[in-house]
Amino acid sequence: MSTSAARYGGIAITLHWLLALMIVGAFGVGIYMHELSPSLTKLKLYNWHKWAGVTILALSALRLLWRLTHRPPPDLPMPAWQARAAHLTHGALYLMFFVVPLVGWAYSSAAGYPVVLFGVLPLPDFVPADKALAQAIKPWHERSAWVLALLVAAHVGAALKHHFIDHDGLLDRMRPGRG
Q1: 90/123 Cα distance (integer angstroms)
Q2: Which terminus of the chain has a lower count of CB atoms within 10 Å, N or C?
Q3: Which comes out higher in pLDDT, residue 92 or 119?
Q4: pLDDT tens across 24-61, in order?
Q5: What gap in Å lies between CA 112 and CA 110, rounded to an integer?
Q6: Cβ distance 173 to 75 under 8 Å?
Q7: What ranges do the domains of the chain cover?
């Protein structure tokens, strides 16, 4: 198998790393802004967080569409349980790429705070404004974000294990600029 045949294509690699950076950034901002007292800075960070969420949602849709229409490279040889774990983790990651921003959008809508993408494009409310609904949804956005963070940590840990322990080239399949 040639190196190029064993790698993901440039668009898949770009979407992977762009989403990775956006998710890590949005998660970090979410943790940071949550602890701030009410201020203009907190409001700006909440808006950035919502913009990031909508962007993550759009990139996730694009990534899923790309993945459904372009075959990935063949799986590397590994024990069956590892292959199953990898496929389950990837499926769960894709699910959470949609769940986290959609639950956040629902919370923002229910709380009566519209999402205005980049401060210029008002998006429709995902659910009607309802303070009780907002309080019910709020913890689910945080919980789902932590689930996504744990899945990302497992994904990164597995990739590093394959790279540094197994030396099987798995990480090279998604590394940019290594064709």
Answers
A1: 29
A2: N
A3: 92
A4: 999 999 999 999 999 999 999 999 999 999 999 999 99
A5: 5
A6: no
A7: 10-173
